[in-house]
Design brief:
elongated; mainly alpha
Amino acid sequence: MNSAQQRRPDGRQKTMAEARDAASAPMSADAGPVDRNEEAQSTLQSLRDELDDLDRTLLETLRQRLVCCCRIGLHKRNHAIPMMQPHRIGVVQERAAAFAAEHGMSPVFLRALYELIITETCRLEDEIIDAPETAA
């Protein structure tokens, strides 16, 4: 398990609130000011490295999602299925809201994030569906 997948003793993932509480726990009083500063800088760099790894994973996952959406656009074009599928957007938004509730995240944030993702998805699908068909 990597450090991004912090778990509680019962095996469940920590909520956002639990992760914030753990990060703000007081340090030991044994260390002097210089040692604490070096330790703090080292910890900060480790956390930034972890964040960079997570960002790479997030961006790659987003790229894969958009590639999948392009394949969906091609399927819709080839089978004369309308681009806009409002019920599907609702399913995706509800899943994000449930995830937010389960993991102590802001549902407003996830809704806004998914609105951006869905807007880009629709733009890509429109381009694909509206593109002239090429001979195979």
